[in-house]
DNA sequence: CACAAGTTTCAATAATTATTGAAACTTTTG
DNA sequence: CAAAAGTTTCAATAATTATTGAAACTTGTG
């Protein structure tokens, strides 16, 4: 059973820790748990696959938390299990291609949030009412405007998901700069 | 002091309540408080300006909460104060143009999150190290890739903020469909 | 200028959400 | 198949975040 073969460059370790910190701090803005964000950051900057033990140690979290969090990352498609031959223990690697990472996140959030929202809005908009009533008209106008917005968002996100590596950035830069 | 002049259509009121509910429920996904989302929804679907009292009553929240939440909405630029002549009380109206609303939200979130993130990433990337060390190389590659992503996001968001009413939707639809 | 009407603040508290840890479960191995 | 190694689950608890409500403050009024 070989120990960490890392030369443990202290400055680098500190920079990584800062990065994990930074990623963890912005978790609150995106409605995900701190552990999830931190574990993702850790796996992103680790060249080698990490075991549950290592995740627990590096992030200072419990086994239970590590187990649930790594599974959630796999659900998002952001992390893969890696079985080493002759090893009982499971190891985990992050998807490293950031375009792919972006696609995963967009796909999941679109499915969980945007699609659900669109369904609910459609249901609300189907409600009949007196078109002479200003309250009713206002309500329907707002609903319609929001639906336009969600539809646009849907188009954009679907487009991004299908996009090729450079196509996307090229188009965007051409479009906005 | 005139009472509510509303004919209070019960079906409509229920639909509005559902909308407020829906909006409030998705607050968790975006890192904002439920009160903030609900109050925004309420003001969006109200044709008339509402007083603090009315906000409190409709959302069933305390005066303190109402006061802080309405202020936060004004900080975002999503709600305006409306002073009625001869009235002491303050009234509040939402920005109703959804493109404008989108711009406000993008502007603020970009400022608070993206810009801050870019600064931190740049700082981390400036860290010197041994280019032969694979750990160091991996770390720098990830940082670089993320910076590319944040830069693209920046371009896109800046573009959206400047966009004209139909220009945006047209372009997007043309681009992605 | 004293009072009334309205607004803001913020420490205390409630509600929510994340995390732990131990027990149950699963899989591998001698 | 018993023990060992590893993983998952979930009720209990900790940590965090949102909300309340009462006191302080501000502004307009007779």
TrEMBL record, chains A, B:
The keyword Disulfide bond does not apply. One of its GO terms (molecular function) is DNA-binding transcription factor activity. Residues 31-89 form the HTH marR-type domain. It comes from the Bacteria. Keywords: DNA-binding, Transcription, Transcription regulation. SUPFAM superfamilies: Winged helix' DNA-binding domain (SSF46785). InterPro entries: HTH-GbsR_regulator, HTH_MarR-typ, MJ1563, WH-like_DNA-bd_sf, WH_DNA-bd_sf. Gene3D superfamilies: Winged helix-like DNA-binding domain superfamily/Winged helix DNA-binding domain. PANTHER family: HTH-TYPE TRANSCRIPTIONAL REGULATOR MJ1563-RELATED. Belongs to the GbsR family. This is HTH-type transcriptional regulator. It comes from Hymenobacter gummosus.
């Amino acid at each position: 059973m070989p120990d960490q073969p890392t030369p443990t460059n202290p400055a680098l370790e500190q920079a990584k820790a800062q990065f994990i910190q930074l990623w963890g701090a912005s978790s609150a803005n995106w409605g995900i748990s701190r552990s999830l964000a931190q574990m993702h950051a850790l796996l992103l900057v680790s060249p080698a696959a990490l075991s549950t033990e290592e995740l627990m140690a590096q992030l200072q979290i419990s086994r239970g938390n590590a187990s649930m969090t790594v599974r959630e990352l796999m659900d998002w498609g952001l992390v893969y299990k890696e079985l080493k031959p002759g090893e009982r223990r499971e190891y985990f690697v992050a998807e490293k291609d950031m375009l792919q990472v972006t696609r995963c996140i967009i796909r999941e959030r679109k499915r969980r949030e945007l699609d659900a929202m669109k369904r609910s809005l459609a249901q609300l908009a189907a409600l009949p009412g007196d078109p002479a009533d200003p309250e009713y008209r206002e309500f329907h106008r707002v609903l319609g405007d929001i639906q336009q917005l969600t539809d646009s968002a849907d188009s954009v996100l679907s487009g991004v998901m299908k996009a090729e590596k450079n196509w996307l950035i090229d188009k965007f830069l051409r479009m906005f700069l």
